[in-house]
Specification:
Elements: H1 9-17, H2 20-25, E1 43-44, E2 47-54, E3 96-99, E4 116-125, E5 131-137, E6 143-148, E7 151-157, E8 163-166, E9 174-183, E10 208-214, E11 217-225, E12 237-244, E13 251-256, E14 261-266, E15 272-277, E16 293-299, E17 302-308, E18 313-316, E19 319-322, E20 325-326, E21 329-334, H3 348-360, E22 365-368, H4 375-384, E23 387-391, H5 403-420, E24 426-433, H6 439-455, E25 460-465, E26 470-471, E27 474-476, E28 487-491, E29 508-510, E30 516-520, H7 539-553, E31 559-562, E32 570-571, E33 584-585, H8 598-608
Parallel strand pairs: 21-22, 21-31, 22-23, 23-24, 24-25, 25-28, 27-29, 28-30, 30-31
Antiparallel strand pairs: 1-10, 2-3, 2-4, 4-9, 5-8, 5-10, 6-7, 6-9, 11-12, 12-15, 13-14, 13-16, 16-17, 18-19, 19-20, 26-27, 32-33
The chain binds (2S,3S,4S,5R)-3,4,5-trihydroxy-6-oxo-oxane-2-carboxylic acid.
């Protein structure tokens, strides 16, 4: 069987037979197989799952040598009440937890738990001939090991990207069960590493489903307007559809009914069908007109449709051009933190509230920090016309010197790009945030940036660079990583961590000749805490810091975007000033309960007047 680009299938199959020790030590081969799962009809496995805690050193999951134990809770046996002693766990009588959801905000005793939680649920299944079935996990933080009817079907590392495990051979007619062990323990050689400024919510944080497909099925596609050397409004719609296990010359039809556009092409020996469509007239996607077209894909028994927008994004010297027109990005950063109810943001309602605030701000841009968010956020952005910066969690200190860590970063990058490359809203792939400037890291991230560009030459590559030391009121970004970027993201906290708010006015920024997005700036304020402008943690000071930031930002000629830190206050265990922080990073424009701070209204006015920066 052949999977879409980047999937080493023989490796993947062989992996199932490899020793458990290899599995626990090595990065898994790429496992995000199915693109557009949210547009397929699936059997949801959301709902109540039984759970058991496997406290450190997690003896049910890890053998003494670190290998994964397939013979403990994964077997889902029940204790003998009469007869010989067998084991001492029982999912059947264990409490339940809701999936999707982090465990921290569902079970008070697990609020600060970082470790292994075992999940189990029964489900009914009737196999259909000539089909294949996959277990799809939207995201599980951080490492996952999955068994169906006692058979290990996959392992995955990475807390914010989806994966699919083939379960065809493990299922039978009638009652089946799935066991998933999720380990949220942070790893020094993980991505992110151990020190993070956000809450490490654990568990099956996004949806879980079973996807049954014909034997030959579409696993991957890339549909966009042709990206030539210049923007051409009449460019073809082009790309590929990949069909798993297709013989050469298998027919694939792609159809956009609203444009009366249709073509049938053939797969090559690898299952790739490349196509071009030349619609007579096409409304391009933009924030002012976020037009999406229903695109249908058909190959044999498999039918899939997606809602796709078409637009062109590129840079021209220091300008960012959307559909050939210079654009200024005004938006905000966002963590995947659920408003009001708290915990990991993963529902339609979360997306509506968060994007509703962005619309209210007159924003046209969001930076989804610091990891890929739930797919429905990107759907919402596509629908609302909000341009997106999407990032993998290479946050600050990463083990850049280790080849296996580069392998992990590559996998996360591929998973992110593969899931979201058909979303018109995404214009920027970011490879990192605030990493130390040294040779090892520059090589690692430049290679990754080049890989991102190779995987997706239609988008812009960026990274958020840490604020430089400011000397004689000069801030010079001379980070060599910028050479590998199309757009420079610059983080800085003048007026909060560095200097005074007023000093921002006099700072002169020097950048390489590329477009710049001020990707983080701001100050903390506790909603409802009032005082004078030099009183920290007041709403007044937060506003004051932003006002002086605006004065500074307006003087940067190549500034093409701003994303204040951050839309909403978010949980961070490192923020421990009682009464002011209480475990929250308070740089939000909105408090976690939805209360808008004064800074929200300041930003809203500035954005509605488009007064912070210029498109050219
Ligand atoms: C940063 C980081 C971000 C933090 C923020 C802060 O520079 O990129 O993850 O949360 O500063 O509030 O300190």
């Amino acid at each position: 069987m052949k999977f879409g680009p980047f999937v080493a299938t023989p490796l993947r199959t062989a992996l199932l037979f490899l020793s458990a020790a290899t599995i626990v030590c090595g990065q898994q081969p790429f496992q995000t197989l199915l693109v557009g799962v949210d547009h397929r009809s699936v059997t949801s496995l959301n709902g109540d799952w039984h759970y058991l805690v496997d406290q450190a050193p997690a003896q049910a999951l890890y053998a003494a040598n670190g290998a994964i134990n397939d013979k403990t809770y994964a077997l889902n046996e029940h204790p003998n009440i009469i007869g010989r002693h067998n084991q001492e766990y029982n999912f059947a009588t264990a409490p339940t937890i809701h999936v999707p959801g982090d465990w921290n905000t569902q079970v008070p005793q697990l609020f600060n738990y970082e470790g292994v939680l075992w999940y189990q649920r029964d489900f009914h299944f009737e196999p259909r001939i000539n089909t294949r079935t996959f277990l799809h996990v939207g995201a599980a933080n951080y490492r996952s090991h999955v068994w169906v009817n006692q058979k290990r079907v996959c392992d995955h590392e990475g807390g914010y990207t989806p994966f699919d495990c083939e379960v065809t051979g493990a299922l039978h007619s009638g009652s089946n069960f799935v066991v998933i062990a999720v380990d949220s323990t942070r790893l020094r050689d993980g991505i992110p590493s151990v020190g993070i400024d956000w809450f490490n919510y654990g568990g099956l944080t996004r949806e879980v489903s079973l996807v049954t497909l014909p034997e030959q099925f579409i696993d991957d596609y890339d549909i966009h307007i042709a990206h030539g050397s210049h923007f051409d409004p009449a460019a073809a719609i082009t790309g590929y559809i990949h069909v798993v296990d297709a013989h050469a010359d298998t027919a694939v039809t792609i159809r956009i009914p609203e444009l009366s556009a249709e073509t049938t092409v053939s797969t090559d020996a690898e299952g790739m069908a490349r196509f071009s469509l030349h619609p007579a007239s096409l409304t391009l996607w933009s924030p002012d007109s976020p037009k999406l077209y229903k695109v249908e894909m058909i190959s044999g028994e498999d039918h899939l449709s997606d809602d796709i927008g078409f637009r062109d994004i590129r840079v021209d010297e220091t300008r960012i051009l959307l559909n050939g027109k210079a654009i200024f990005l005004q938006g905000a950063n966002m963590h995947a933190e659920a408003p009001v109810r708290g915990g990991r943001a993963n529902s339609d309602e979360d997306a509506h509230i968060l994007f509703g605030w962005l619309k209210d701000l007159h924003a046209n841009f969001v930076r989804l920090a610091h990891y890929p968010h739930d797919e429905r956020m990107l759907r919402e952005a596509d629908h609302d016309g909000i341009l997106v910066w999407s990032e993998i969690p290479n946050w600050q200190e990463i083990s850049f010197g280790k080849p296996e860590v580069y392998g992990k970063a590559q996998t996360l990058l591929r998973e992110m790009i593969r899931r979201d490359r058909n979303k018109a809203s995404v214009i920027l792939w970011s490879v990192s945030n605030e990493t130390p400037n040294n040779t090892e890291r520059t090589k690692f991230l430049s290679d990754l940036a080049n890989e991102a560009r190779h995987l997706d030459p239609t988008r812009l590559i960026t990274s958020a660079i840490i604020g430089p030391r400011i000397e004689n009121m000069k801030a010079v970004n001379n980070d060599p990583l910028c050479d590998a970027l199309d757009v420079i993201g610059q983080n800085e906290y003048v007026g909060w961590y560095t200097l005074t708010p007023e000093e921002a006015d006099g700072i002169q920024w020097v950048f390489p000749q590329k477009p710049v997005i001020m990707s983080e700036f701001g100050a903390e304020a506790k909603a409802g805490n009032h005082g004078v402008v030099n009183q920290r943690w007041t709403e007044e000071q937060q506003v004051y810091v932003f006002e002086h930031q605006f004065a500074m930002l307006r003087k940067i000629p190549q500034l093409r975007g701003v994303a204040p830190w951050i839309l909403m206050d978010f949980r961070s265990p490192t923020r421990n000033i009682p009464k002011l922080q209480d475990g929250y990073n308070r740089k939000g424009l909105v408090a976690e309960d939805g209360t808008k701070k004064q800074a929200f209204f300041l930003l809203r006015k500035a954005y509605s007047e488009r007064s912070i920066g210029k498109a050219e």
